[in-house]
Amino acid sequence: MDPDTEVESIFRQENSEKDDEEEEEKMKRPPSSYGSMKSDVSDVMEEEEKMEEGDKVSFSFPFPVALPASTAQDGTGIQMNRPASPETLYTMTTQQTKPPGAVVIDTRSSDLGDFSEPDDEEEDADEVLITNSPEPPEPVEPEDTTQDENGQPGRLHPEQDLPHIFKSIQSVLTGLTSDDLLKFKVSFYQWESKMTLPQVMEGDLLDFVDRILEMLGQDRSLLHTINTLENIAMKPVAEELRNSCKRALIRYRLKQYMIEKHQIIREGVVRAGRQNLLNNIYVEPHVTTRGYGGVDPSHEFGRSPMSPSTLQVPTADTFVGLNNLFRLQTGDGKPVRTVVTTGIPGIGLTVSVGRVSLDWAELRANRDMQFVIKLSFRLLWLLRNKQLPLSQKASIVELIKYHHPECKDMKHLEEEDCKFLIIMDSFDCYQASLDWQNAPVINDNYTQAHPDVLIVNIIRGTVLRGARVWILGRRAAVSQIPSQYIDVVTELQGFSDEKADEFLSIRFCNDELTRNIVAHYKRLPSLRILARHPLVCWMVATVFERCYRYRDYGVHPPRLTPFHGSILIFQTNRKMEFYNGIPENELKWSTDEKNQLNKIGKMALKMLERNTGVFFEEDVKEFGLKVTDVTVFSGLCTELITPASDKKRTYCFLHFSFQEFMAALYVFTLFRLESKNVLDTALLHKPKLFASKDQTKSAVGLVQCALTRTLASPPGHYDMFLRFLCGMLNPDCHDSLMRGCLYSHNAPKVIGLDDAQRLLEQTIGTAEENRVENLKECLREMTQKDE
């Protein structure tokens, strides 16, 4: 017996003290498929947990040990001593890598005699791969594109796929001497807790590479191999492996960035221990290729002052999945390059970016995209305003490297076969005016230019020519991009009623709580309509979850005014944080913010009086406002799509009920802070009881003026306005909710609420039947109590 064989037998004897059956269970793994590795890793993890206490052998060598020379250099045959495996005989990848004419033997059987003369019944059995080469064969590319479980084209680039990783690791380790290979395995084992020493040492080199890819996955196996080679002072070999798998390493680092960035969704104020995983709570909103502005025309009173041609709902045949945006084609049948996605504020554009990024990182979709690189317009705007060299002139490669250091020295973006995605969200955050006509043309990725010029050339397609570009932003902002640079415009539509119920259902483990919340919010028609908006749907879930902790809650319909007030506060705080750069813990509404909201409310009241739901640029300027501040930054309004023949840009509020809320908020604010009753000037008939000017400035006088307007107008015109005004009179709304935001802590208290309540009760007793129910809702809003 030669010395190497003797050493190996000693080593095997020291690690075989337990009985054969127990050893078989410990070493159980599927037969080699040369990198296919489709078995369930969780099964291996469960076995490893059982072996943690007894199977980790402290291994030391009292004398120099040399492993047998790798048989991989002379050709690899069948491993007869492989343990039994519960896995299938081969997988799809095995079939792809199986050489023509290969003999198939099931190595799971300990009785090799069974395979010497196969029976006729076994002729059709699955075959196990055998090859005469130590290197895995090149994968066979099928003519038809493979698809994943979501119908997505799922073929990875060959240099990012498992066969290439297998071949690269096996190739560099084959070049090691026996001593170096032993040193490598020992170091690999010391720094890898998921594998036992026998699992590292048993078998030949091919078995080792096969096993680590199966147990650790291709990314961890590759990184651990490179780190181990560097630890044993073999940096040239590590660098060779790094260069061979550079495309896979860059993809891995981008994947890790996307997972860290989007795995946990931030909802409202972050509370320790209450973070939610995006995968657990995400419900995809409808995305349409034929948007009309994204505003829901539904209304509790069945009316909308906007014409049907202005507000339309896209049909189901125009819907497309988020992960399928770049499977769309242009009119001439070519794949799209630039896709623009818009939506009203709070509809979920940012969350949609997180969903697509996370699906790519976790290999659920768009696997054929070699890289997904995020270049947020918000970060580009912050960089532009910093006093840094890159803020004045930089190339697109330098910008990518600045935001993603892992993309350093990445030459792949220049290659023709490199298919990658650039995500540019928050277009509305880039507040500079872009010169689409006169910006210099840049034809390569290394020419330095001002960020404004780079953005124009990215969208033009003269730089990053091979990229797919996904631009997201509010319609009033992205509408400045010339149409010739856009292949498809899509629009987030929010939830259907069924998706809203699903969103509320998957958030809670308590089925009874879920049923109560879903049934409760539907009792108020306006809230059911608003819940199609993802932001409001989240508020419904958050508020009602807390409310149902109290006894006897849920008997009567919920209140509407607090929800609209919460939307206003959320959007204003987000504007200050997102556009003005104010830290979250320093948010404080300035006088300018309050004045702007009052002016928007004044405009909303005038629109209500004119019985219109749309406004134009001249209307905004009439009230001393800037169009961008109202339609982009405020988060309260949006732009509608207008016919090409009509060159006037049309705008509206997020929903017509929000316009009614802002009008009521303006009336109440002037009443509380300036003791003005703006409704008094239009009072057609003033009862003697309220003839005094001082009396019309009281709460009861304000309600009397609002009631007069409402009852003198057609049903539905001022009804919601009256309801919101009565709701604002309640201290829970104007004091608890708005204090510190729109109103200071020392703002004057509202008096005369009891008189206003009695007036409402008297009006309910004398009003027409079709008005009574809304007046009762007004009373509930005013008292914030059930009848």
What can you tell me about this protein's structure?
This protein has 787 residues and is mainly alpha-helical. It has 33 helices and eleven strands. Strands 3-8-4-7-6-5 form a six-stranded mixed sheet. It has a three-stranded antiparallel sheet with strand order 9-11-10. β6, α17 (451-460) and β7 (467-472) form a beta-alpha-beta unit. α27 packs across α30. It is elongated and about 100 Å long.
Radius of gyration: 34 Å
Number of strands: 11
**Could you estimate the helical fraction of the residues in percent?**
40-55%
Distance between the termini: 97 Å
Shape: elongated
**Main sheet summary:** 6 strands, mixed
Mean of residue pLDDT values: 79
Low confidence ranges: 10-19, 21-145, 682-695
User: Based on helices, strands and strand pairing, what is the structural class?
Assistant: mainly alpha
β content, as a range?
A: 5-15%
Summed up, the helix count is 33
Provide the spatial order of strands within the biggest beta sheet: 3-8-4-7-6-5
